[in-house]
Structures
1.
Amino acid sequence: MTSEGTCGPRSGGPPSSRWPILGSPMGEFMLTVLGGVATLERHLIKARTDTGIKRARAAGIKFGRPSALNKHQQEEALKLLADGKLQSGDSILLLRTMNPRWH
């Protein structure tokens, strides 16, 4: 204990003075170790995520945004596209005419 009744050295300066000097060998070592731990954690997270994605795809789960049109509307849109009554850029018009949520 120090004369003030606290244990160990204390710094009353700014937070940057409480960190080891980064130019010192010990400071460089600490940053290298923390960088290595961060890289390891990133690889572990990626491996878990990839495993989960593969498992979900094997279970038949589809990824991405859900379709705004149901199966019947999709078939009707493809028929209109094949007949030439609809162009590929008419997606907003298609949504408004076939989907009551867009009215």
2.
Amino acid sequence: MTKAELLAPLREITTSDLNRANAGNQDNKEGDTSRIHWGKFALMGRLVNNVTMFQNRCRTSPALHVQDRHGLYQQLFPQSLVLMDDDVRTYYSFLRLRKLTFRR
């Protein structure tokens, strides 16, 4: 397997593709809200499966073997580090959106 076959797509591109698939397609069939638009979810599933496939290739490839650097991980993410939970992230996202919406 060549390195070109192992390369994973950029996260920003994949996120953009997922956002466009979500925003550009309705959840339900047009004209009949009781029917789910499965094409949208199939497309999103294919995008997620592609990323998972590339991640698995990178993890299992001897060409891309990276040694575990536990010491570096401990420096970057000490146990005392407190990450934002979902509620805090939602609150800050709301504030950012509100600031953009009401900007003059």
3.
Amino acid sequence: MVIRTQAVAEATGGRGRPKINFEQMPARFPEGTMDRIDRVLKDGETRADLVRDSVEATIVSRERVAERRRIAAEAKATREAEEKKAQAKAKRDAAKARKAAAVNGTPPAE
């Protein structure tokens, strides 16, 4: 019992039960929003429940979009790096061909 009480005291800063969902952010909504929220609430659901669920769903959606964009940017960078590498190789090959042609006394093929 002492361990549990001590854990609760540490979690709450020494007072009462531990807080859950304690980050707060006041928000102002356009006129009529509360009525619209009330019309779509499920049985037993509060406005706060709907707002929390909506915010969570929006965050998850935006995180997915950000991840897809990050992956696409990485793929583009990889493609560009491969293209640059291929162009550098083509330049080296062309220079080798010119050098070989000069050594052999034949005109370079273009």
4.
Amino acid sequence: MRSILRRAERYGWQYLGRAMSRFLYKLVPVVVESLGGAFPELNTQAIRVAMVIREEEESFLRMLQRGFRRFENEAISAVASALAKKRGAQSHESLDRRRGTEGDQVALCRRQD
């Protein structure tokens, strides 16, 4: 169920606009009206279901935003690194910065002068 909610939320965030995010919990009354007869617990737990979905949406959107920021930063870094290599320069600052997160694998890539 979580993966379905996250896929729908990502779709809304990406294609309907970030202003449309956090919209799934608002659809709970429609789901209750449609499926309440088959699942009577929806009628009694509608508020709880909406709260759980809203919390899940907010958590997922925070994670999604962090991931997109990280991706954008890495893409910028990769472009800067490619441009530096094209000019014949080694981007030591970028390598040193990555050492903290990627460990000694970076040392293997460093040119020995």
